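agent: user wants the full assembly modeled, not chains individually. Plan: 1) parse entity lines 2) check alphabet per entity 3) run joint structure prediction 4) return tokens. Steps 1-2 passed, two entities, 582 residues total. Proceeding.
--- entities ---
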Amino acid sequence: MSHGLYRIHPRDLTVIVNTGDDFRLHGLFISPDLDTVLYTLAEWADPVQGWGLQGDTQICAQQLARLGGETWFRLGDLDLATHLFRTQRLSQGATLSQVTEELARAAGLQVRLLPMCDEPVPTQLRLASGWVDFQDYFVRRQHSDPVLECRYQGADQTPPAAGVVEALMAAERIVLAPSNPFLSLQPIFSLRGFETLWGSCSARKVAVSPMIGQAAVKGPLASLLASLGQPVNSLGIARLLQNWIHVLILDEGDAALVPDIEKLGIQAVCIPTLMKTNQDRDRLARVALDV
Amino acid sequence: MSHGLYRIHPRDLTVIVNTGDDFRLHGLFISPDLDTVLYTLAEWADPVQGWGLQGDTQICAQQLARLGGETWFRLGDLDLATHLFRTQRLSQGATLSQVTEELARAAGLQVRLLPMCDEPVPTQLRLASGWVDFQDYFVRRQHSDPVLECRYQGADQTPPAAGVVEALMAAERIVLAPSNPFLSLQPIFSLRGFETLWGSCSARKVAVSPMIGQAAVKGPLASLLASLGQPVNSLGIARLLQNWIHVLILDEGDAALVPDIEKLGIQAVCIPTLMKTNQDRDRLARVALDV
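--- prediction returned ---
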């Protein structure tokens, strides 16, 4: 989604990214969502596997496996450079916002790319076996366990990054990209003062539903909606976002849900929402900016 | 040197390694001397450049340069795996001795490979501009500045690793490989209780001089000897080691120094000391074990 918005308005865009999935591995500070957005906007992303960098190699990861190291999170050699850069700059006292800006500049991006906050606010999930960290659930267990509860550790003590407040107050329009409400949006809305800030900014707020029919565009959203007691479709999304948005863009195939969504006080717009080509991305971005 | 000893006595050998050069970079815990010994004994070492791994690539390092990261210490992709492994295991609470043992086992080595101690004891050097860390002097400044003084931070508070004490007390013979006394031997001898331990162990103690004529086999030793006021040859080495060894093996071309070395109470043995082939290594190792 941010890719389409960036293609249309590269200079006027601020992208605010969830950092609840951040974690440390092998001493490195890894920000998977920031990296995915960075790589996507820079057109470095691997279009096939959906994460990591195009043409990346696994020379280090294969050697690490030979040494008996942990390899559940596969680090490409190019990808590693991002983590080394971030970790070094953080150890020198730079904030995550500063490092992110440096990386965006190095990638030649004109966009303002911001982490939701500068301190770690790790998302944790309660499974039948107890609380686990996000990457443990997502990568190591391949998000196969039912999730009973989510928490965002320390979010209520942590303010949004300085640039986030400025960006929201100055925004004419805010677009929530098709995102998992539990794992990508709620971490941001849980930050100290964020809901108040959101309520006081005058921008028109538009979300794109991450559900098409009963399936999520990607990731474990469908099973999360089910195990957390929501309808497994865009109505479930509308309910979760109802206090936050004016408009929900949902897939044209889900037009039957419109009356129930509009009962929640949300304007519903039906168009094709699956993005496979840049043309799809641009079209959806234009609708999100125009409705 | 350890390679020759290992080739002859793989099962009876303990190699104790200086860790004064260890440092953190990009969040990773790097032990250059341990890695060099590991790679050499495993026959993974790059025989041309004298550090790093044979056939290693620089995919990550090149990307890091593109991102604007620090690249004064070039990390190969295979080499990185060692640092990731070590950093992860240390962060899980393993000691440096344990991690080193795990790496040696993963590399298929039968030798006992030990760091001199488990805590950081960084070597620092006083240059005209002030105190700097070892890697700053050695890699970033390419050891071109005159060294006025050396110190081993915290050595007098830090005991040798547990295995080191055992190995010395059990040893029949101790061989000091051709090493820089200031940068590789003194850090070990500065550890808390080490001199006493050394004095109380009954092994025969043999050193191989790292000087051939007025040149060091490698590294900045000649300029260090000069700037720290010692003769720039094997007599300088003998003076620095005179309280620690029974025998000094020096190059056959330096026979003229023998009378002065023997006046120090050290037996001097002249043979070719330059090791280029495995045959050279085996021959020197045999002499070191027999004298």
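agent: reporting back. Chain B touches chain A at residues 24-29, 57, 59-61, 63-64, 66-70, 75, 77-78, 80-85, 87-88, 90-91, 102-103, 106-107 (CB under 8 Å). Residues 2 and 37 of chain B are 8 Å apart (CA to CA).
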